[in-house]
Write a structure and sequence with these properties.
The protein is α/β, with parallel strands linked by helices and about 260 residues long. The protein has one domain: Alpha/Beta hydrolase fold, catalytic domain (Rossmann fold), CATH 3.40.50.1820. Helices cover about 35% and strands about 25% of the residues. The protein is built from eight helices and ten strands. The protein has helices at about 50-60, 85-100, 110-120, 140-145, 150-160, 175-180, 210-220, 240-255; strands at about 15, 20-30, 30-40, 60-65, 105-110, 125-130, 160-165, 170-175, 200-205, 225-230. The strands form two sheets. Strands 1-2-4-3-5-6-9-10 form an eight-stranded mixed sheet, sandwiched between helices. Strands 7-8 form a two-stranded antiparallel ribbon. Helix 7 links the parallel strand 9 (about 200-205) and strand 10 (about 225-230). Helix 2 (about 85-100) packs across helix 3. It is globular, with a radius of gyration of 17 Å. It starts with 12 loop residues before the first strand and ends with a helix. About 40% of the residues are buried.
Length: about 260
């Protein structure tokens, strides 16, 4: 594969998978290790952290990739058909087909879970991990534990339920398929055999994903090179100017 850069404001490119689905992406060529950004639940690659990291990498001549999972953003598919396993497959496809050489994976919220699962699938390709409010096991520990009896009945009856979104976002669609599949990809119940350097950033005022999740994750990783940065007044998004500066500073140290 030959790396090709597209202008920052260009329409996304598209890559076809064997099943006919398409993955939308933006890619910039540059030096290794490259940086690959993985978005959160119901988010897409046009978010503030993704764009900030792309500008940062372009300015330093470093390879960068951002993409949308199936059912997100400009990629094909319906969100309600998505699962953790399917989105991990998308991430591994993007890693295999759209990048070259070692990569640092940056995962935001759900993307922090996806990056860990991708790193377990392709350890030889992953030079490091950076989680921002990483949410491994969120289908079980955050959504599953908070569902009311009425919401569970709705899932059993209709196959899905809408729950309030994080930070005032539109409601999140939670399907029975998502919860069932998520239970097959849980990580925090045992040692996680990831040995690359890992950096975690988490806001202590995060009302959606407790900062203790990142602390627990740091304890469960095999790697000895793990650092956790706690932001005392930080919420879930960590997308204010100071947060973005912190993100790139941590990434720079990791690179």
């Amino acid at each position: 594969m030959t790396e090709v850069s597209t202008p920052l404001d260009a329409p996304p490119s598209s890559a076809s998978r064997d099943d006919g689905s398409t993955i939308a992406y933006h890619r910039a060529s540059g030096k290794s290790p490259g940086v690959m950004f993985l978005t959160g639940f119901m988010s897409d690659m046009s978010g503030g952290k993704a764009l900030h990291l792309e500008k940062y990498c372009r300015a330093r001549g470093r390879a960068f990739l951002r993409f949308d999972y199936q059912g997100h953003g400009a990629s094909s598919g319906a969100f309600k058909d998505g699962t953790i396993g399917r989105w991990v497959d998308d991430a591994v496809f993007a890693l295999d087909r759209l990048t070259e050489g070692p990569q640092v994976l940056v995962g935001s919220s759900m993307g922090g879970w996806i990056m860990l699962l991708a790193a377990l699938r392709r350890p030889e390709r992953v030079a490091g991990l950076l989680g921002v409010a990483a949410a491994p096991d969120f289908t079980e520990d955050m959504i599953g534990d908070r569902l009311t009896t009425e919401q569970r009945e709705c899932i059993r009856r209709d196959g899905f339920v809408s729950i309030p979104g994080a930070c005032g976002d539109k409601p999140h669609v939670v399907t029975g398929k998502l919860l069932e599949d998520g239970s097959r990809h849980l990580l925090l119940r045992k040692i996680i055999p990831v040995i690359c350097p890992v950096r975690l950033i988490h806001g202590m005022k995060d009302e959606d994903v407790s900062w203790q999740t990142s602390l627990r994750l740091s304890q469960m990783l095999t790697s000895d090179d793990v650092e956790l940065t706690l932001v005392k007044n930080g919420g879930h998004r960590l997308a204010e100017p100071d947060d973005l500066d912190r993100l790139t500073a941590v990434l720079e140290g990791l690179l």
